[in-house]
Amino acid sequence: PCLIWLCSPLAEKTGKVLGEFCRCYKEQYGVALFNSVRYEIEGNGGPQAQLLHRKVPLEDHVIYSGNLFQYIEENKKWRNRFCVVPHNYGLILYENKLAYERELPPRVLINSAGYKIITSVDQYLELVNNSLPGVTPKSGHSPILKCPTDFPLILWHPYARHYYFCVMTGKEQEKWRAVFQDCVRHCNNGISEDSKVEAPAFTDAVRMYRQSKEQYGTWDMLCGNETQVLSNLVMEELLPELRNAIGPRLKGKTQERQRTWIQISDAIYRIVYEQTKAQFDAAMAKCEQERPQMESTIRTDMDQIITSKEHLASKIRAFVLPKAEICVRNHVQPYITSILEALMTPTSQGFAEVREVFFKEVTDMNMNIVNEGGTEKLVEYMEKLSHLAFHPVKMQSCYEKMDHLKLEGLQQRFDVSSTSVFKQRAQIHMRQQMDDAVYTFETLLHQELGKVQGKDDLCKSIQRILERVLKKYDYDSSTVRKKFFREALLQITIPFLLKKLAPTCKAELAKFQELIFEDFASFILVENTYEEVVLQSVMKDIMQAVKEAAVQRKHNLYRDSIVLHNSDPNLHLLGEGVPIDWGEEYSGQAEVEPNTDKRRRAKQVVSVIQDDEGVLPYEAGVEALLQPSSPEPQEPDPGAPPSSPDGVEEIREELAKGTDVPSGAGVQPATSASPMPPSPRPRANVPSEATMPHATPASSPAPGAETTSLSTGTACHQPSDKETGEEVTPMSAKCSRPRPTATTESGEGVQTEF
């Protein structure tokens, strides 16, 4: 009922926020287009990378799959789920492994952008208690969540619904936590950097909009693709008001009010998401429609636009620079070295660990080839090595180095809400550098294989190539880190300077507007030029600090004066060739596997936990179905009651007896989960109109969307690379009360999430 009376004002307020943002976006689009064309004409590339870059790193691969328990809120039961993490980092939950292999529709599709992984029920309850002020559970009252094991995994989001999982052992929990964190990290980075106009226009528009609301500094919810980020932006403004309006109306016990609030927040988030997507898509389409004419004007009048901009910059510089330099000298310069050192230590340790992990994996492979055999074993090991960068568990030792990043007092001084932005960015760089090193190694080795004779010659070639790749890695990682340090310092100091200078400078900027010719007003903005002047005031100090840090050997950075010329001029040509398939090229297995077998044996980056530790209780129900006496699994009678213990106490009792805990209710009939129809969305990595902003490249088709299999040559109900989020039932044009999800007899059904 709360949503019914809120619907009209909610749409009105959302429309108002989006209207202001879209005006910012249109302005920034013209500036970004000009910068892109200017860069294309003038060129200003940095040092050439020595390592090769793989274009499609995880095609036809599954990151991970395995069993865990999920808490189903509709019937307050814990159920076994088989979770698959495909190459696009979605979380796809099936009834069980058999349902996945039989290509039945998944139960849930989770897009994890903006989520946090929590492994403690107490920590989760603290977040829930803080989400609704004035509602605090009394001691002795039942909490909102009880976990049947001591190893929970909770996906928490400030606006969207929460997901509750648990596993049986601490080793499983660590493995799943690493996998979930990799999904969140990948999905948060949802705005494609390949877009040289739309991406900078969008991020600059977000920054300008927030600054217009006196919100400077980093923002934790810049997560996911454009629609998800915008939904977070709207919710950031709406939520406090909605909480105050709805909170007092909630009835029932404390945990019931908390649960209701989470559901209401999620429903509002969906409504906001759909409206945001429609309005922003329209704004983008309008900009794209105007782009050809704008680009023609830029190319024709490039010199005049540059001259006009430089004239404007000189006038703003004369007004702003003296004040900015005083501010830099008094409030920024004394702290640059401290900030840089805080950034450099964990980051350099992380990149050193990447080098060590790569070296160890290749060295172990080489030793095993010596002991076990030549090319035959090489194929097996290279297939594993080729996806080392995407192995969450093996990369965890690299990523966790960034957990030591602490800005402490500097964080409050410079209004940095959280260091997570910098941690995540450094971790993404680590993964990319690892994959570049691995890809370069396998490309050079593949080229060398035709020349080697015998096992000894092969091992010597591997060692020689490893040394070459490590030299290239050292140079590229130095370049990447120095760029990361400069960008991080700017991200920390520029918002601080803008906030300091705003009282004396911002009101005076309007008078500079008359210096811009009307024909060029779409490509030159006073606000952007002002920020560039402020950036120039501190850039010299930042460059000098990074340059001096490069001299310190402890960080393993190359000096700016050292330029490593390409010793392999033809290497980048090799990287443009057909991707290497070690198994297909060297194993000699040319026969085509049936689709089902392909699906069962889909290449997987991380080994399944059960392979290492034996069969755990999750699969007991499925194992029973696969007994010899029952060659083909039989689907249960829809009228039969569930045969598995689903409640917390029941599962605990079964575990205490030392027996296996059966899975869910066996294999549910295919009709119990509605199929996921096609969405006409052609764009990759952007959610469909019926998808929820939970993450980015994890995809879920909207109504009407075609779905493709995780393995090649098959078709099944699962996300494609064209969509993101989770399946949702489209809301009607009129804002009506949300209807409950379709459920089976046990109260489950497909979670209709965005």
Search tags:
PH-domain like; disordered C terminus; 754 residues; 5% strand; mainly alpha; 7-stranded antiparallel beta sheet
Textual characterization of the structure:
There is one protein chain. This protein has 754 residues and is mainly alpha-helical. It has a domain at 62-129 and 151-185: Pleckstrin-homology domain (PH domain)/Phosphotyrosine-binding domain (PTB) (PH-domain like), CATH 2.30.29.30. It contains 20 helices and seven strands. It has helices spanning 2-42, 97-101, 121-131, 170-188, 198-212, 226-246, 254-300, 302-372, 375-385, 392-399, 409-413, 420-448, 454-505, 526-551, 571-574, 582-586, 595-600, 609-613, 620-625, 648-657; strands spanning 62-72, 77-86, 91-94, 108-110, 116-118, 152-156, 163-166. The protein has a seven-stranded antiparallel sheet with strand order 4-3-2-1-7-6-5, sandwiched between helices. It is globular. Residues 706-717 have a biased composition (Polar residues). It comes from Turnix velox. Residues 630-644 have a biased composition (Pro residues).
